[in-house]
UniProtKB/TrEMBL annotation, chain A:
Residues in Exoribonuclease phosphorolytic domain copies: 50-183, 215-280
Protein name: Ribosomal RNA-processing protein 43
Biological processes annotated in GO: exonucleolytic trimming to generate mature 3'-end of 5.8S rRNA from tricistronic rRNA transcript (SSU-rRNA, 5.8S rRNA, LSU-rRNA); nuclear mRNA surveillance; nuclear polyadenylation-dependent rRNA catabolic process; rRNA catabolic process; TRAMP-dependent tRNA surveillance pathway; U1 snRNA 3'-end processing; U4 snRNA 3'-end processing; U5 snRNA 3'-end processing
Record-level Gene Ontology MF annotations: mRNA 3'-UTR AU-rich region binding
Compartments (UniProt record): Cytoplasm; Nucleus, Nucleolus
Pfam families, alphabetized: RNase_PH, RNase_PH_C
Family: Belongs to the RNase PH family.
Protein's organism: Lunasporangiospora selenospora
TrEMBL record, chain B:
Protein name, per record: Exoribonuclease phosphorolytic domain-containing protein
Protein location: Cytoplasm; Nucleus
Main location: cytoplasm
A single BP term in Gene Ontology: poly(A)-dependent snoRNA 3'-end processing
Residue span(s) of domain Exoribonuclease phosphorolytic: 43-173
Family: Belongs to the RNase PH family.
Amino acid sequence: MASTSISVSAAESPAFSFSASTFQKLHPVEFFRKFISQGVRPDGRLLEGFRPTTVHKNVVSTANGSAMVRIGGTTVICGVKAEVAEPKMDSPNQGYLVPNVELSPMCSSSFRPGPPSEQAQAVSEAINRVLKESKVLDLTDLCIEEGKAVWALWADVSCVSYDGNIYDAALLSVMTALSDVRIRKPTYNEGIIKVSGAEILDDENSFTLNLARTPLSATFSLFDSSMALLADANAAEEAICQGEISVTLDEKGQICALSKVGAASSSQTLLRQCIATARTRTDELRSIIRSQ
Amino acid sequence: MDRKRVPGPELTVPPLVEYALDQKRWSPQEECRHDANRQPEDLRPIYLKTGLISQASGSAYIELEKTKIACGVYGPRPIKKSGYGFSGTGTLNCEFKFATFACVKRRNHIRDPQERELSMILTQALTPAVRLELLPKSAIDVYITVLECDGLSSCFAAAITAASVALAHAGIEMIDLVAACSASYVIMDRTLSSAVPPPSTTSDSAPAAVSLRPPTIIMDADLEEEKFEEGSIMVAYMPSLNEVTHVLQNGKVDRSIVSQSVEHCIEACNKIYAVMRHALVESIDEKQTR
């Protein structure tokens, strides 16, 4: 017996002397669990730590409003373009606000060329719901001539680099770009809409959007059955986490949207904890936007 | 009807822009370029950086003042598409896409024929430099997104430059980098030809008057300058081998001007090459300090 146990351990010992990166590739979940049991994450963050975030306004001059957002390795650019469209028959004085998120194959190897993936559709739809249900923008502000012409705002988010947490980044970029929008004042004359070509835009010849509120979000991932809560997961963490909780709050701390997706179960206390952390995180994001 | 995106109105159009009569707008009559500080042979300052996309094998970002382009390279990776069979050499796929907000008029999410054509040209311009014979059965995917476009042919030339830097950054073996540059032919002094609108009676003398005034070759034209161009040329060139990989010339122009502009472009490509090399050396330094 003694001899066999020695030979087994001798045979096993080289198998356990992997480098850390090999171990991560072979057993990603085990690798993460080792870190999380110590209360840290492989990139050095604490469990509730968010990645450094930067926001830049007015980065694309061909758009009416634009913003670039970086959350760690995730970079998104939102450009809002205002074009003229015919209003719907049942809402003749309402314009359009159409958000779409594009996860192109450029930003990560997990996306394929072709029509938008399910993930891209889900994020686009989630942002559309937040904008619509929490009445961010009064669409009658976009009316040019009732029943004839309205503004259509295309808020397109283009993902340049993907490293997890696309919902927070996309929503932050859409809201910042909307606050940056400046549209030339239109004149309507027998079906033709004209705007002035003045080089300098001021309040005389253009207008900005009147946003009722600015919903911003914080996303947490649920790791494993231990219900460890990881704030702002990156792509590698997203891949091994089972669930996700997104909390969207406006500046008064009112909840605009709350979603919990995935197979992991959560408790009420966990949800309360998420909302409390989201409050401080969205306040932090607001001060980042203001300082810009 | 696109069912996989948030639906918007079927048709939207940009509003007509009306300029005040007293508003000063640039035109080639002023004998200077749109950016008055630039001489005809001057390029815009180039900002080139690698490693922007963390998940890609290689990536590059290029900025020529307003023009902004991001490029990501994935591979070499196995060909996933079925029906391609065995291939002794690797394949290089390029996908060129404008962001919907990149141009003056909004672009669609779905690739239009122009983007498809530019993707094909991009593949042709880059393939001669890549050693695809070393990568049988595999594919290299180059994805380019134009975030803002200020001048179409200069934007396209910048895309080639960025793509070749991204390929090098991905560690793919190449025989040389490909630098690209564009030039436009603009008749700088229009006092003769523009004062008289296309005459119907003196149709014989009018073209002669125009041809007397040869167009000026202006390098790296921006959008305003492109509006007045007679034609344009784009040259992709491998600087250390002194070989041209692609020439694209549009518009009717004299033969001597074409050969002259090719020389100008090659000269400019050598300048761009220095910037590309600098960006790559910088990326190696960053890797070492990390």
